[in-house]
Design brief:
mainly alpha; 0% strand
Length: 70
């Protein structure tokens, strides 16, 4: 799982959603908050906060707007 989490960090949001839709196992890997935090910091260039009270995937979905979250 750790290897796939690292691989997922190289994918854009649309590709992450497509991979998550392939099977339950990938869905559980892709839905991990660290994957979406990395995507937000990289793609959306949001500053890294110490603590957040939201899901990173929701932030990515609301700011990127080009796909639907799983």
């Amino acid at each position: 799982m750790d290897l796939w989490t690292e691989v997922a960090k190289f994918l854009d949001g649309k590709s992450l959603v497509k991979l998550a839709a392939t099977c339950r196992w990938f869905h559980s890997v892709i839905m991990h908050d660290s994957v979406w935090k990395f995507a937000c910091l990289r793609d959306l260039q949001v500053p890294a906060p110490c603590h957040v009270a939201f899901k990173w995937i929701k932030l990515y979905g609301s700011l990127a707007g080009n796909y639907q979250t799983p």
